[in-house]
Amino acid sequence: MSKSPEGGGPVHTLGWWPRRRSALLDVGLAGLAGLECAAGAYGMVGDRLHLGAPAAVVSAVLGALAGATLVVRRRWPAVPVLVGLVFVPGLFGMVLLVVSLYTLAATWEWPSRRRRVVALSAIALAETFGMALVYMLAPTQVPAEETPPTWVFVLLAALVSVGLTVPPVVTGLYVGARRRLVESLTDRALGLEAELDLLAEQASERARRARLEERTRIAREMHDVVAHRVSLMVVHAGALERIITKDPEKAQASAKLMGEVGRQALDELREILGVLRMAEPAAAAAESTGGLTEVTGLVEQSRAAGMAVSLTVSGERRPYRGDAEQTAYRVVQEGLTNAHKHAGGARVSVLLAFVPNGVRVAVVNDCPGGAEPVRLPSGGNGLVGMRERVVSLGGSFDAGPEPDGGFRVEAVLPSRLAVPSERLA
Question: What is the reported pTM?
Answer without folding.
Answer: 0.45
